[in-house]
Amino acid sequence: MGTTPSPAELAGLISRCTGVAVTDRQLADPTTTFSDLGIDSLGLMGVLAELKRSHGVHRDVEMNTEHTPRELLAVLGQEVAR
Amino acid sequence: MTRRVVVTGVGVVAPGGNGTKEFWELLTSGRTATRRTSLFDPTGFRSRVAAECDFDPAQAGLTPVEIARMDRYVQFGAVAADEAWAQAELAPADPWRVGVSMGSAVGGTTLLERDYAVTSDRGARWVVDAALASPFLHHALSPAHLAAEVADRVGARGPVRTVSTGCTAGIDAVGHGARLIERDRADVVVAGAAESPVSPIAVSCFDAIRATTASNDDPERAARPFDRNRDGFVLGEGAAVLVLEEYEHARRRGAVMLAEIAGYASRSNAFHMTGLRPDGVEMAEAVRRALEQARLDPTGVDYVNAHGSGTRQNDRHETAAFKLALGQHAYATPVSSIKAAVGHSLGAIGSIEVAACAQALVHGVVPPTVNLETPDPECDLDYVPHTARERELRAVLSVGSGFGGFQSAVVLTRPERS
Amino acid sequence: MSTAVVTGVGVIAPSGIGADFWPAVRDGRRALGRLGRYQPNPYPVVVAGEVTGFEPEGRVDPRIAVQTDRFTHFALAATDLALHDAALDPAAVPDYRFGVVTASYSGGVEFGQREIQALWRSGPEHVGPYQSIAWFYAASSGQLSIKHGLRGPSTVLVADEAGGLDVFATARDELARGARAMLAGGAEAPFCPYSMCGQLGIGLLSAGEDPDTAYLPYTAEAAGFAPGEGGAVLVVEDADAAAARGAPARAVVAGHGATFTGIGRFPDSAEGLARAARQALADAGCRPEEVDVVFLDAIADPRADQAEAQALRSLFGDRAVPVTAPKTGYGRCYAGAAPLDVATAVLAIEHGAVPPTPGVTGCRFDLDLVTGAARPLDVRTALVLARGLHGSNSALVLRRPETS
């Protein structure tokens, strides 16, 4: 189930879950972490939970706020590939 | 003139034992009361372990009318209050000088959820069907119901308050109760807390943030405070109620004084609703202020009853706080958490821990931290693993930490000290 | 002992937000209307006071807005107004000396209903991470302390309207113990279907369908109160600390008293209220003869109203003391109600006017109830009364600061 969200869709999902306005350009930056964007651990948990529910991301996927949205995008790509 | 506050009655409803005696036996035995969740079917939940009370309200003395009216946590509180009040043997005091101070973090969760499932047709409709609601649902909206029921049981007509500071509510309710006496608003205050959060909504909200354990395969050892392999708390339930009394009032009537509430303080970390900074400075500040009120030097603390929830963050946080507040003495002081045995009952646990501290003072015994197998280099104090320890206790400290950033500390001493 | 003074007032009410509130209550403008927060509305409560036009956008940081219920949005917004009004920068208060005490009646019920619906409709993994911090009663105190860096004593009291008065006693107590400033108040957002389903069981909400006649305490038509949403947060400071920074003291939080007479036992609340008021007056060091105005609880239940009238008689005897219940204009806001009354009392002291009890004529008790228009009055001492639906009675005395 689920489809890989595009960077723009992921940006929208993050904004909706965390209240932080994020652009797809920010998501592509390899150095910007979730923490840099002002997303805390609870916010990130909400994002991951939504991706697991609606986009078929495996339930064991874990990330912390020092990861980058770009890493999350990479995970999403792999998830669909496997 | 300072009005001193002593404890003249204790009542407990806890996992593994109803009544203070059974509760204390469990704590000092090294056993745990955590098990696979049985109050609802936990299949599909991340955490499926709980510390549940084997509680029969009728057997505990409640009437059918009371049982119908009271949510589970109120039943716990009422029964614990009855035990405490009976122990205090307070013959008709002036009711306007008797107060109540009760705590709860989430209040009527059990009834709220049961009625929600029915009135919403299991979530099918937003505009719920009021015709299907219990006539007592309004009590479940507000934990003030707990304090009101306790007040009526003991005939209190003085100040009656409900403190709802999340997981420090149990300590804060005792602290606020003591202040009512210190400030001459009452001579007697029935103070404590109750909680019954073992229901799908509370379990799922802690699942969502991974605060509770996922060690479902070994329920009795799921809560592991200060252990290197700890992975979250075990949700618990229960209640504890103390009768607090002004020292002279108790002395004049020849009451048995179990302990003195010598100091209390609360501070906020102003950091994060659930997260804790590793340095523990705000908890240390609360401890310092509580010791200051107790006129106690840090070296006077003989035992620390820790919050010890068994989450990665908490145990490190408060270990740091104890070192800040007690200095080198922290290394020489036994520190233990009873949460491996009775779980973390949110708002109730603070009062349950104060009740444990009162028993520790009376018996000269430090209850152990059960399930502490593998030391954590970041938690390097004396956590009294496995086995209770006899020790001369004159002053004990109990602390709590709660969602919302609340950090609270209370100091209990032997009342003969003056 | 330190003196506690009000230096800032922040109001989010159906009658108005911030500075719009006083002119609306002074002129007795009605802000009750047909409840519109959920549709359809099959319940026998259709008249309510809603803070129409209040949206978190522009008032609450979007990151915080998604993780909090409307009752916390109100508290956050009211606090911003209060701090601005007090011209107080929290960072200027010594560390650990600024705390917060809020009252709540039913917590984050709308947020909670959304999440519990997700749980029961879709399963446990559909409950979001914010349910654990949005729903509980402590959400507002926690968020306020974080937002403003308040590391002092922080607490939460739950006792419906009485709890909203008790927070001022707790703030004063903390100032006496060394705090320099406290945020004190509370707000309520009780309008979601499941919460209303619970409130119906109280049996005291008005079923009236006409906003002009649904909430008429002290009259023969009294048939329950119209519920309201909103509340107020006040900055309460140590008088010396306020003076040192040149902040005017707007009112002194002078005395408090509290008793308990049981759930629904309204006849007993007459003595309970009178005793609470006497305690509060004694605490303030003032005599009943000095009270210039009383802000009433106004449950609009015949027994409850009568008990309140009896309490006033017992306190004041034959003396006609102006009394008022501005909340008939915007609804009874549970834990937000008393903070709104305290805010109104502060404004009445400042403006030298007692706002009216909108809509009420034909008081059936021997009370000097201010109706129609505001009454000009030199208010030096105000008494605020409140009862909690779970049986508590509270009283607070506010006094005009001595001008030196």
From TrEMBL, chain A:
Output this protein's name: Carrier domain-containing protein
Q: Which domain of life is it from?
A: Bacteria
Matching entries from Pfam families are given as:
PP-binding
Phosphoprotein as UniProt keyword: yes
Boundaries of every Carrier domain copy: 4-82
Q: Which UniProt keywords apply?
A: Phosphopantetheine, Phosphoprotein
Is Phosphoprotein found in the keyword set? Answer: yes
Q: Which InterPro entries match?
A: ACP-like_sf (IPR036736), PP-bd_ACP (IPR009081), Ppantetheine_attach_site (IPR006162)
TrEMBL record, chain B:
Asked if the Swiss-Prot or TrEMBL record annotates the protein with the keyword Magnesium, the reply is: no
Q: Name one GO cellular component term.
A: cytosol
The record's listing under SUPFAM superfamilies reads: Thiolase-like
Identify the InterPro entries for this entry.
Beta-ketoacyl_synthase, Ketoacyl_synth_AS, Ketoacyl_synth_C, Ketoacyl_synth_N, PKS_Beta-ketoAc_synthase_dom, Thiolase-like
One annotated GO molecular function is: 3-oxoacyl-[acyl-carrier-protein] synthase activity
Pfam families per record = ketoacyl-synt, Ketoacyl-synt_C
Q: Does the keyword Acyltransferase apply?
A: yes
Could you give a single Gene Ontology term from the biological process aspect? fatty acid elongation
Entry protein name:
Actinorhodin polyketide putative beta-ketoacyl synthase 1
From TrEMBL, chain C:
A biological-process GO annotation: fatty acid biosynthetic process
Name the keywords, alphabetized. Acyltransferase, Transferase
Keyword check for Acyltransferase = yes
Output one GO MF annotation: 3-oxoacyl-[acyl-carrier-protein] synthase activity
Would the keyword Heme be found if you checked this record's keyword annotation? no
Q: Which InterPro entries match?
A: Beta-ketoacyl_synthase, Ketoacyl_synth_C, Ketoacyl_synth_N, PKS_Beta-ketoAc_synthase_dom, Thiolase-like
Q: Where is the Ketosynthase family 3 (KS3) domain?
A: 1-400
Q: Which SMART domains match?
A: PKS_KS
Xref: Pfam families: ketoacyl-synt, Ketoacyl-synt_C
Q: What family does the Swiss-Prot or TrEMBL record give for this protein?
A: Belongs to the thiolase-like superfamily. Beta-ketoacyl-ACP synthases family.
Q: Which PANTHER family match?
A: POLYKETIDE BETA-KETOACYL SYNTHASE 2-RELATED, POLYKETIDE SYNTHASE-RELATED
Q: What is this protein called?
A: Polyketide beta-ketoacyl synthase 2
User: What is the native source organism of this protein?
Assistant: Saccharothrix coeruleofusca
